[in-house]
Design goal:
This protein is α/β, with parallel strands linked by helices. The protein folds into 2 domains: 172 residues, NAD(P)-binding Rossmann-like Domain (Rossmann fold, 3-Layer(aba) Sandwich); 105 residues, 6-phosphogluconate dehydrogenase C-terminal like domain (6-phosphogluconate dehydrogenase C-terminal fold). It is built from 12 helices and 8 strands. An 8-stranded mixed sheet has the order 3-2-1-4-5-6-7-8, with helices on both faces. The protein is globular and about 70 Å long.
Amino acid sequence: MGEERTDPPFGKVVIIGIGLIGGSLGMAMRARRLAREVVGVARRPETVSEASARGAIDCGGTELVAALPGADLVVIATALGLTRRWCEAMAPYLGPHTMVTDVGSAKEQVVRDATAALHHPAMFVGGHPIAGSEQKGVSHARADLFEGATYVLTPTPETDPGALDRMRTLVADLGSVVVEMDARSHDRLLALTSHLPHVVVSCLAAAVGKITQDNPAARRVIGMGLMDTTRIAAGPADVWTDILIANREQILAALALHLDVVTELVDALRAGDPDRVAEILARGQTARQSWNT
């Protein structure tokens, strides 16, 4: 963490949504002294109490407007579909120098909604920490969640250079690796590397579940291969529904690529052609091995 800071780079930071990502961000900022004060906003008082008890926030409440005065940075860490609503609600209460960011895994809709709703859209910097798990809630938050993780920033040509520089510094101070790209490029890549895998394993789990649901014998022969492969299918359905709807154009394109390969394999199996089957499997093996380098 380096030398102890005497002057945190941020004053008051407001985190809307103190679940796994928002709570972990609060923990990391407090542990690394990146903010003078971290204030949480949640729907339920119980969540605020738990976040406070776990050290994710200094204080908090259920009223957004009450949390905003003097905010240096506001982080939206809730469902993607709520971004515009939050930005419209906070816009009249933010000064021209208050930065706003988010942590959503689909960016085009978020950037569009935020810049349309905020009175000072140049101060919005879209963000996506590629970190987390299938778990949900502040009870699973960790101060080290972002260490070593890629953290994507999606500025626009109108983004304030100073705000972007401060976000770059914040991401680096969290221990993450900064990657910058436009929102559309982000969504196209994440559709392949994150959203498509979730769709595929969710469908796999649902398909196998048709057999195992009322069949104890089938459940007993489920091996670690299936358990490991489908781990992320245990993620919260409401969160993933938001992501899939928000990025549906790019996810449909990714699904088309996947279905092309699946169709190849189906055709090879129907033909009883071991050479074609082996070639398809080898392509997958080679791709997977290349990701370790």
